[in-house]
Amino acid sequence: MRLREFFRRTQPDVLIAYTIKPVIYGSIAGKCAGIPRICSMITGLGYAYGRHDWKARMVHRIVERLYRASLKHNYRVFFQNPDDLRLFLERGFVDARQAVLINGSGVDVDRFRPQPIPDSVSFLMIARLIRSKGIREYAEAARVLKNKYENVSFRIVGGFDEGNPSAITRDELQRWTNGGALEYWGEMADVRGAIAASAVYVLPSYREGMPRTVLEAMAMARPVITTDVPGCRETVTGGVNGLLVPPRDGAALAGAMEYFIRNPAEIAAMGRRGRDIAVERFDVHKVNRDIMHAMGI
User: Fold this and answer.
1) Range of the domain at 198
2) Do 146 and 277 lie in a common domain?
């Protein structure tokens, strides 16, 4: 109701909403307020699709009804990976005339520029501290590798999300850092310094829309280790600009990380190719141009 009143006061010509609650509430409120052109961006499927317990299944059913009710009012619905687009078409949330596939949210390749690779091998993960980002697998891989390679560093940047049902607790993170495997660098408004200080970027997520941190690391010429799941696999070609591993597999993740420890020359080579891909496919100006064109602006 507050959104509807706000829209009625401001009378926008076009609405674009992204992330699940703004998409659902914004689309319904926008329709009630008479906004002539409503658009949404699906940036991932979140908790309802990432877990299989009874609570997630209940949320899943509610979310599907809300998506179906709200998206029918949309002029365009943007998807950041083909798997999410296919799912929404199959479930009847959208039709083919509405759906537009884009290359994520893009990355500012002028702001995120290549930086020299540090002399020592180090790994970085940037994510909200929730299980579905693969943080436990990262911690497990770090513990295994730290016992073999004392001089290798494993860092994590991100904030706690204590309201999330799959949140990592402060005590759990403290145990990882006390054990010496992980370095916790806290939450950062500007992650460029953390990326520059690390050699390889890691995101073992269970599912994404398209992870912006991966694009930022690629733009800064860092190779990426990520999972072969929707949203993540669109960013990495195995052996070209990084490595793909199965989700929820700490041993496979450790193996991919060890590859770079044993083959440090590959870090710079894959990083350069990642930068080229970021410029060619994921430049935010190109992505924005595609979005604006599809919105009729």
Assistant:
1) 122-281
2) yes
